[in-house]
Specification:
The protein is an alpha+beta fold. It folds into three domains: 1-53, no CATH class; 71-154, Alpha-Beta Plaits; 162-281, Pectate Lyase C-like (3 Solenoid). The protein has five helices and nine strands; from the N terminus they run βββββαββαββααα. It has helices at residues 83-100, 123-134, 164-178, 268-276, 288-291, and strands at 19-24, 30-34, 37-41, 43-48, 71-75, 106-111, 115-120, 140-141, 144-151. The strands form three sheets. A five-stranded antiparallel beta sheet has the order 6-7-5-9-8. It has a two-stranded antiparallel ribbon with strand order 1-4. Strands 2-3 form a two-stranded antiparallel ribbon. Helix 1 (83-100) crosses helix 2. It is elongated, with a radius of gyration of 27 Å.
Length: 297
């Protein structure tokens, strides 16, 4: 008698080919409880299927996902507060994405001296960057010399608390993938973060550091941005309807086509300056309180 044991059915895409395991009893009797029944036989063949992850392309290699491990990528030069510098760094990141095939590579933080870009990405993508530098194949990028590439050692690898950079990396990833409607992000460090198209409506971003952040096409309607640092941030096409901007720093920010309808905390002089830079301040019709949307839950 042959007994075939199979686990509960599951999607073929999550299983690898079945393997057989035979048990010989050497004249004895094999017995096992299966589904409440006792199966007895002299030879038993057990067919096992083992779950396995697959990539989106359908191959059997586990799909790489962004990790909390970070890479320090040092280049020559100094960081000047101009849009040209930001555009240059964004171009460098795009080139690194192209070299590795990892579109998740992004800047988490920037440190001065020689410019040190703290990069996040998939383990495979970051490892490829380091290997390219170690082999001498990545001595410069976009005519900018690369001085050093090394992984950042973190205490969390030993089971300790997450570092500030790891917390920042995780927070940025959560906002980009899940949104942050009504979230408490007061005092958060989101500088240099790519939050384009993110939903931050009703979020508390008071005192947050959003300097140099990419907030293009982001929804910041009804958000509290009081005392927030938005210097050199990209707010082009962002929705800031009824946002609180009291004492917010908007120096150098890109505001082309950004909607500032019914915002709070903007003086007439500030409004005139922002309008010259392309911001939209068309007053909405009707009473402001009657037009206010309820806070989502």
């Amino acid at each position: 008698m042959t007994c075939e044991e199979t686990p509960p059915s599951s999607s073929p895409s999550s299983m690898e080919p079945a393997t057989e395991r035979k048990i010989e009893t050497n004249g004895g009797v094999y017995g096992e409880n299966i589904g409440g029944n006792v199966i007895r036989a002299e030879t038993v063949t057990i067919i096992q299927q083992v779950p396995q992850s697959h990539s989106a392309s359908g191959d059997s290699e586990p799909q790489s996902t962004p990790s909390s491990r970070l890479l320090a990528f040092s280049i020559t030069g100094s960081l000047s507060n101009t849009p040209v510098s930001r555009a240059k760094l964004q171009a460098i990141v795009q080139q690194l994405q192209k070299l590795t095939g990892d579109t998740s590579i992004d800047i988490v933080d920037i440190q001065e001296g020689s410019i040190k870009l703290i990069l996040s990405g998939t383990p495979k993508g970051l490892a490829k960057l380091k290997a390219l530098f170690d082999s001498g194949d990545l001595s410069e990028v976009l005519d900018t010399a690369v001085e050093a590439v090394k992984f950042i050692e973190t205490d969390s690898s030993n089971g300790n608390q997450l570092t500030d950079l790891e917390i920042k990396t995780q927070l940025i990833r959560e906002i980009r993938t899940q949104g942050a409607i009504g979230a408490d992000l007061s005092w958060a460090d989101l500088s240099w973060a790519d939050l384009s198209e993110a939903d931050l409506s009703w979020a508390d971003l008071s005192w947050a550091d959003l300097s140099w952040a990419d907030l293009s096409w982001a929804d910041l309607s009804w958000a509290d941005l009081s005392w927030a640092d938005l210097s050199w941030a990209d707010l082009s096409w962002a929705n800031l309807i009824e946002a609180n901007l009291r004492f917010a720093n908007l120096s150098g920010a890109k505001v082309s086509q950004a909607i500032f309808v019914d915002v709070v905390g903007i003086s007439p002089d500030d409004r005139a300056d922002l309008e010259k830079r392309g911001a939209i301040f068309e007053d909405s019709p009707g009473d402001r309180e009657e037009s206010r949307s309820p806070i989502p839950h």
